[in-house]
Amino acid sequence: MSLASAKYSLEEAETNITVNAKGIAHVEESVSYAFDGHYIDIHRELKALPGESIRNVEAQCSDKACTLKVERIPEGYIVIGKLPDPTPEKVTLFVSYDCYGVVKVYRDVSEFSYKLWGGKWEKPLKSFKGNVKLPMKNESELKYWIHPAAYTQEVHIEDNVISLRTGTIPSTQWYEIKAIFSRIESPNPNFVQIDNTKGLKETLAVEKVYQQKTLILDDLYRKTVLFAFFVLAFPFLIYLRYGREEKIDYKETYERKPPSDAKPAIVNAIISGRMGISKIEGFTATFMDLANRNYISLRNLKPEDTDSLSTPEPESKNFMIELVNDEIYSEPNENLVELEDFEKDVLYLLKAHAFERNVSWEKFKKDLENGTDFYRFINAWNRKVEAHIEFDKLFQSTGNKYMNFFSRSILLAAIVYYILISGIFPSNVFPLASKINVLTSLIGIFGFVMIRCSGTFITIFGRWTPEGNLYYKQWDNFKKYLTDLSALKEYSPESIKIWDSYVVYAASLGVAKENLQNMALVVPSDQLEESHFYPISYNYNRSNRSGYDSSSYSCGNVSSSSYSVDINLEDNINRSGDLNRENNVNGSSGGGDASK
User: Fold this and answer.
1) CA 32 to CA 128: how far, in whole Å?
2) Which of 440, 435, 446 has its CA nearest to residue 403?
């Protein structure tokens, strides 16, 4: 047995072959191992192809470092060298044998084809040297080819000997030579294979095809590299052309009032959403806006409310919602004419979960978390919000559309290209094909990532129109004001009614938690009790005045940092489908071994 950390490497190998006048090839091989750890033995398999045979096998180890034995196997022989303990750091195995039938004699020429390095080694070979001597009188009669040619670093002919040298040959990769030379006179079928056809023309045709494929592959590799650089440069070009914002004359640091009276869900869709599609904070802000406009009322739980709950919840995490507007219960075609369709949908959703016009927030939350109904509702609701927005007037998404089309195109092209390269140019015959496939895979992965993250890159490859840029910056500055305690203290809203409207917009901008916290610190307790959101904010008032700890109480986390009632609707959304992903789609246009 070997140590778990034991390993070995193949340092170098050499093969010297002499083909005599009868066509018998005498082969002398050496393979040098380097060991780190304990190994039991090394072995070398000698396998003959159909029509060939191996004879006169002899073997030895350098410095008599191992005990050798040669055994017959169905295809030939196996040489096993038992290693001593401790295992030497370096061992070279020498093997010699005669090959019969390795030369094929045609009517016009003789052919020698031999794998100088087999394809079943589990480790890469660092370097290889080989010499092949052929029986001929004139070197001009010799033609030879080496496969795969990419591994050859040096090759030359001298005195009928082909000498070659390689760099690293990867594991499982073979390396062979094929040579055509003058026909052996009076060939003996016991020594060579005899084919009574003319072989030169066919061999030259096969090798011509191989050479042509090699040249084509070299050209494809260069073009693939250039295309990979183009793929990396294309997003930058799209950004320069379509992503850079136009300058506008706006230098304000804060906006202390809402820049417009837009619906909170619409503000959320434009400022925080994706391509005008609202996020979950837009739904929450609409809910709070309805409370601020007296369609529903929020109140702390009373003892009788707590007693009626099947699972009582802590007071700080629950409150009651009351549907106080009678129009909610009138005929749908006649009621609530002053509300938009998506605002009515929120009221009707509450109505569907209310009992005697009341619903516990925690119970409402749990109802929504069960099943996939809310997932379907919120997607339909988002589409209604989107219908109220002329987003194209505010944002130009041309660059993002081009980038999305480009990403899909290169992903499809990479898949097709990879299949074609692998089919036409097998990597074991054309090693360069492996490099092309790696580049192709990286290009395909790049395209896939760009598609998956297209929603994230909208503002990079698209840009706000001057009108949209002003709209965005004004609302973003208002968001900064809502979260800046010092600014709120210095320029505090004049009444609790204004505070409440600000809280609604804070929810749509995803900063309700911070704004409610600031509200609890700035607004006096007696005024805070008049707020529509007192059932929520009084907890901040109580905790902040005694030393607020944001980690001990979370007033909300609907979508990263939105409404603050510990609703966790994202859990339900993730179970029934990724809401953000849905929004994004809708908004995006012969071998050997060493034994351990």
Assistant:
1) 10
2) 446
Cα separation of 65 and 81, whole Å?
9
User: What's the pLDDT tens digit per position in 364-384?
Assistant: 888 888 878 888 999 999 999
Q: Comparing C-alpha atoms, which of 113, 129, 100, 168 is closest to residue 31?
A: 129
What angle do the packed helices 373-387 and 569-576 form, to 10 degrees?
Answer: 100
Higher pLDDT among residues 486 and 455, named by residue: 486
Task: Give the pLDDT of residue 421.
Answer: 95
What tens digit of pLDDT does each residue of 104-137 get? 999 999 999 999 998 889 899 999 999 999 998 7
Please give the C-alpha separations between residue 138 and each of 141, 378, 497, in angstroms, as whole numbers: 6, 85, 106
Question: What is the mean predicted confidence (pLDDT) over 431-446?
Answer: 95
Phi, psi angles (nearest 5°) of residue 146: -120, 135
Residues in the chain: 596
Neighbour tally for 410: CB within 10 Å: 24
As given in the structure block, the two tokens for residue 364 are 């409402």
Amino acid identity of 473? K
CA distance 189 to 181: 18
- Between strands 152-158 and 90-100, the pairing is unpaired
All residues at 6 or more sequence positions from 19 whose CB lies less than 8 Å from its CB, including other chains: 25, 26, 102, 103, 112, 132, 133, 134, 135
